[in-house]
């Protein structure tokens, strides 16, 4: 089973849920945790992962042979991302805008454009006390997370459960991370901002055709409108987590929730069972 964990906004407790679910299930089945929040991965802190290997992630970017180029402008015309420009007799390539689609080299009429690898980040593989752990790290300044997310997802487990922690929001990196999941957990908080962004997240997963449910974190800080929305939309509320200063204190020190408050182990095990029931 592949379970993704997403949220419409940051700071709702998405990583708390993903890592706690991994801790609750390890030892009962094979568990793989993929941290696809490649701009700010931090699951390794709460999993205490030991990273054993790292591999670069590259995208192909154009290299122009000026001796063959006729500056016809075809490469610029076919580039949907404005990553290549022709100014007089010069061809300028903007690597950070390139998506590696290969259109410029394919349509160059004189074969003046080839492709060279451009590193945009790395994928790290390790172990977290029996849990298979993989994360992606986008190089600072690079704008494109999806190619790294795709590389991370190639490590999806073939047995047991794979848990995918995504970046916050509903943009392209989130879509790339959650698509193909069997179930998506949406983590929110009972505040007006939380509800507003939850609505966007629900629209996104529905558009992707993903089964989904909601975990409401920090219950007690807001009101009951989030639960009312879920009820009206027929969205199951899988779990509620109360506003608890102890959770915040332990979390800020990098202490896993299930280690700090063992009573949550059974709750997260039951969460996985509830997801299985919803999928059956």
Question: What does this entry show, briefly?
Answer:
This protein has 11 helices and 11 strands. The chain is of the alpha/beta class. It has 2 domains: 2-48 and 129-279, P-loop containing nucleotide triphosphate hydrolases (Rossmann fold, 3-Layer(aba) Sandwich); 59-119, 2-Layer Sandwich (Alpha-Beta Plaits).
Descriptors for this entry?
alpha/beta, Rossmann fold, Alpha-Beta Plaits, nine-stranded mixed β-sheet, two-stranded antiparallel sheet, 11 helices
- Tell me about the biggest sheet? 9 strands, mixed
- How many strand segments? 11
Summing up helix and strand content along with how strands pair, one would put the structural category as alpha/beta
Strand neighbour order, sheet with most strands: 3-6-7-2-8-1-9-10-11
CATH topology of the largest domain: Rossmann fold
Number of helices: 11
Roughly how many Å apart are the termini?
A: 12 Å
Radius of gyration: 22 Å
- How helical, in percent, are the residues? 25-40%
Strand content: 25-35%
Number of domains: 2
CATH H level, superfamily name of the largest domain: P-loop containing nucleotide triphosphate hydrolases
Would you list the SSEs in sequence order as H and E? EHEHEHEEHEEHEHEHEHEHHH
- Average pLDDT for all residues: 96
Task: Please state the second-level CATH architecture of the largest domain.
Answer: 3-Layer(aba) Sandwich
In terms of per-residue confidence, which ranges show pLDDT below 50 for 5 or more consecutive residues?
Answer: none
Global outline = elongated
* CATH class value of the largest domain: Alpha Beta
